[in-house]
Amino acid sequence: MALRGGSDAVAVAETTTPREIFRSDYRPLPYRVGSVSMNFDIRDGKTTVESELTIVPGVGEGDLVLDGEADALTLLSISLDGKTMIEGVDYFVEGDALTIPSRVLLGNENDDFASRKLRTMVEIVPETNTQLSGLYKSGKMYCTQCEAMGFRRITYYPDRPDNMAVFERVRIEADADLYPVLLGNGNKVECGKVEGDEGRHYATWSDPYPKPSYLFCIVAGNLGSVSSTYTTRPSGREVRLEVYSEPENVSKLGHALASLRKSMMWDEDEFGLEYDLDVYNIVAVSDFNMGAMENKGLNVFNTALTLADPRSATDSDYERIESVVGHEYFHNWTGNRVTCRDWFQLTLKEGLTVYRDQEFSGDMMNSHAVKRIEDVNALRARQFAEDAGPMSHPIRPESYISMDNFYTSTVYSKGAEVIRMYRTLLGKDGFRRGMDLYFERHDGSAVTCDDFLSAMADANRADLTQFGLWYSTSGTPTVKYFTKYDESAKTFHLTLSQESNSDKPLHIPVAVGLLDKVSGREVVPTKVLELKEKEQTFDFPGLDGEVLPSILRGFSAPVKLVGSSADEEKDWAFLAAYDSDGYNRWESGQKLYTSLIFQTMRGVQSESNTMEHVYEAFQRTLALDTDDYSIQAYGLIMPSESSMAEELDVVDPVALHKARGDVKKSIARKFHSEIRAKYDELTSAMKSTGGEIKLDATSIGRRRLRNVLLDYLCSLKETPEEREAASELAMNQFQSSFGMTDRYAALSCLVSMGGEESVVARRDAALQKFYNDAEGDALVIDKWFSGKEAVLNVFCPDAYFDHLTYFFALRYLNHLEMCTAVQAMSDLPDVLDKVKALVEHPEFTLTNPNRCRSLISVFSGNAAHFHADGGEGYKFLGEIIAKSDKLNPQLSSRMGGALIRWKRYSEERGASMKAELQKLADMKPISNDLFEVVSRGLK
Asked: What PANTHER family does the entry give (predicted)?
């Protein structure tokens, strides 16, 4: 008999304003769960979940509150120490919470107790769970996603990260033919046929390590796998590694498995951290809100971050899979063994783990400079924008309505920059001492950002009190500099000042080197200056001539740097030529490009002859004799429109897009013969490999550079002759390419070509062949739906993504999704009409996050067309968001982020964007996730 329950509806705000939760609200649990046993009886149409919770005393006074979602759970029974409980007497259900009064737990004696056994049985319907939170069905597979608050959609439980319990026994029962693979956290301790029902089987899993409920996971499905073993070097433990997917995709799992082995070895070498279970499983899931999830011993991955072969995956797909496999593995210690006390501390695990995976990827790529360029590109394009918008928040937020909205670039990417600053200030050895002390103190605990800071400070006997302000300061700080050379004293003076949203000065590490202003020789190697006041002057004595400072080397702090030199463009050109710091050399070139693009947009030319500086820098980079093709490629790529927009008070996306295109075309015309010669040289070198797709840094860099050059060559399409030549060149590469990287890059050029019948015929033929060759491969067709900027990111990635970010659209593309993505970023004037038509395509569905992101979110990132006059792009997005919110609030709220920065645009554009936000805000019902985004956006 059902005691409580309902349909699996979306949690919504109808007539009452959703409650805002504050960091200051935190209180320890008066009662907590010490251990858990569960039984899942999975049957089509319903799943029964039995739980036995060992309740033990916590801290302070209060009742036992179990979180749930009433619309997802049907309560069938509840008992305490074997005695059936009566609603309204022994327990109360109000809204989503089930409360057991303290008097019931204490009993008649009203005294302390050692433990109580609380048993519940609930019924859930995974098949109708379109939110993809909790237990849901993806295709023919059942799986879970419990971070941040999905476990409460499975059963009643204190669903918060500071309740770390041992899940002693989790039994999963299902149809043996339909779901032959049953997986859970920890180690498998038992399996077999169900007695009395030969058609069903079970598996029991046990995890000996305490964990919060957000790390819980089960999977049931018909899965294939690849496997290996790894012997840990500290203790010699043999660990079985297994990566699962649907059987037809097993051949694409090898790279993920190899990446896991590399990750385990790297963590042992760099941090002395060893894996602690007998098995490590990864499962690829196609319907997934996140990128990947670090569930203890059972990671669940978006298929786009697991499946790879040369036919369907680009070089960046391979690099990204390796990075994210590393990220989730590294969470075993920075997130699982030591977790967050509350969700406001999310950056404690995510910022730290992002930093760790960035360092891992830099080592695997054998180029930390390339990795740093990619990471900073992403930070500036996404996180700086977030800092400047209505969703701005510190890396440790002070409040939220829906925690899902705070899996942000700020928490992840800026959080990683804060960790990097610890490393910069304390040095490699000091940082390692701090990490060792952190684990020594807090293994098995749920802690705070302050605990991490204390470990770093205590291990190094350092005062980091002022540094702690980074955790509570929103917005992007600005560092300004002024220089003076005192010839008589042979001393160079560097004055730094800072501005931020903090009432007190931040502790900012500024890495600086000095170059001789005549020869370009480095006269003072990199030195870390600690800016701790509003303004400080640093002296460099003993210099026999004028020098040029290279400031913020390696992007040593997440700040905006502003100089005061009257000859700054000349200085940038000098640094672009001579700076020994790879990142700053690239950064100086980017500043030159940006200056020229802004001048072009405004119809002015500076007296410093910016165009000649850009030409000189481009020519010098193109002529480099180097095997580091990736650095060379990045030196030739102009800044993205999104990163440049952050430097403008009022953004005109159409004008910015045109100016960037005009500069690209001027460079392509000026150096056409040199670009073509280099392109042909690289093509010949690649043909000599006989079609083998190698994944070493040199081969990846060579393809990256060649595709950058192709993009320049194909930008020339003003005349029929140019369009014919460009389309023929791109089509030749499309037809002759052996791997997805070059094929997709060629398609990205073709998709924005129109005009003559022959040009259109090549474009359409390439699109059709790409779609046909996908043969139903979802990852490739998603690429087909999207477009050119997305493609550019495939071979020149400009973003780090994990978990929840709306720019999944640009990064997590499988073959089917490639087919989607390649059209949503077309530069043709009818792109919106094509996107609307693709929404009606039989391969498109709003219920699959990858598919939706590959078309809708990619189009909203196609700034010049999304923001086209008339506001039709905004109306289209608003309609899609309204439909999506009824299915998947996490997805709808992410898409809503494209509308909230309306104040950055012209009055007409801003009014149209705001009107769409208001329509969404007026919806009845509206999910809490979307309500939080649109309400902040309307302020």
From this structure: PUROMYCIN-SENSITIVE AMINOPEPTIDASE
> Same structural domain for residues 489 and 610?
yes
What tens digit of pLDDT does each residue of 568-616 get? 999 999 999 999 999 999 999 999 999 999 999 999 876 668 999 999 9
**Whole-angstrom Cα distance, residue 927 to residue 778?**
29
Q: Cα–Cα distance between 605 and 611 in angstroms, integer?
A: 8
Domain limit, last residue, from 476, 508, 526? 476
Q: What is the CATH number of the domain that holds 429?
A: 1.10.390.10
Out of 69, 319, 328, 843, the active site residue is: 328
What CA–CA distances, in Å, run from 74 to 46, 816, 891?
11, 37, 26
Residue-level length of the chain: 939
Range of the domain at 263: 229-476
For 786, the token pair is 């999207």
Q: What distance in Å separates the CA atoms of residue 736 and residue 229, rounded to the nearest whole number?
A: 39
Q: Which helix (H) or strand (E) holds 933?
A: helix 928-938
Backbone angles phi, psi at 227, to 5 degrees: -145, 165
Cβ within 8 Å of residue 25, ≥6 positions away: none
Interatomic CA distance for residues 408 and 414, integer angstroms: 9
What is the rounded (10 degree) CA torsion for 864, 867, 871, 872?
Answer: 50
Q: Name the pLDDT band for 824 (thresholds 50, 70, 90).
A: confident
What's the token pair of residue 311? 């036919």
Does residue 538 form part of some domain? yes
Bridge partners of residue 97, in order along the sequence: 67, 94
What is this structure's pTM?
0.93
Last residue of a domain, one of 222, 242, 271: 222
**Same domain as 485, residue 535:** yes
* Percent of the chain topping pLDDT 70: 93
Active-site residue flag, 328: yes
Is residue 27 in some structural domain? yes
Residue 91: DSSP 8-state: B
- Return the higher-pLDDT residue of 693 and 777: 693
In this structure, are 863 and 732 located in the same domain?
yes
| Packed helices 788-795 and 740-750: angle between N→C axes, nearest 10 degrees | 150
Could you tell me which of 25, 16, 50, 48 has the C-alpha nearest to residue 36? 50
Strand extents, DSSP E, 418-490: 445-447, 478-486
Is residue 651 included in any domain, yes or no? no
Q: Spell out the alpha helix ranges (H) of 637-719.
A: 641-645, 653-670, 672-687, 697-713
Q: Are residues 498 and 390 in the same domain?
A: no
Calpha distance 606→6 (Å, rounded): 67
| Residue 558: CATH number of its domain | 2.60.40.1840
DSSP 842: T
DSSP state of 551: E
**Claim to verify: residue 208 and residue 339 sit in the same structural domain:** no
CATH code of the domain in which 114 resides: 2.60.40.1730
Question: Within a domain: residue 675?
Answer: no
Cα angle, residue 144 at apex, residues 140 and 150 outer, rounded to 5°: 140
pLDDT, tens digit (0-9, with 9 covering 90-100), for 473-517: 999 999 999 999 999 999 999 999 999 999 999 999 999 999 999
Residue 738 — φ and ψ, nearest 5°? -95, -25
Considering the domain architecture, whether residues 805 and 875 belong to the same structural domain is answered as yes
Total number of domains in the chain: 4
Whether the CB-CB separation of 843 and 781 falls below 8 Å is answered with yes
- Own/partner long-range contacts of 624-629 (Cβ < 8 Å, ≥24 apart): 627/698, 627/701, 628/367, 628/370, 628/701, 629/698, 629/701, 629/702, 629/704, 629/705
Rounded CA gap, 320 and 306, in Å? 9
904 and 772 co-located in one domain: yes
C-alpha radius of gyration, the chain, whole number: 28
CATH for 928: 1.25.50.10
Q: Report the distance separating Cα 106 and Cα 548, nearest Å.
A: 73
Residue with tokens 């928490």: 411
- For 433-449, how does the pLDDT look when each residue is reduced to its tens digit (9 = 90+)? 999 999 999 999 999 99
Residues 68 and 158 in one domain: yes
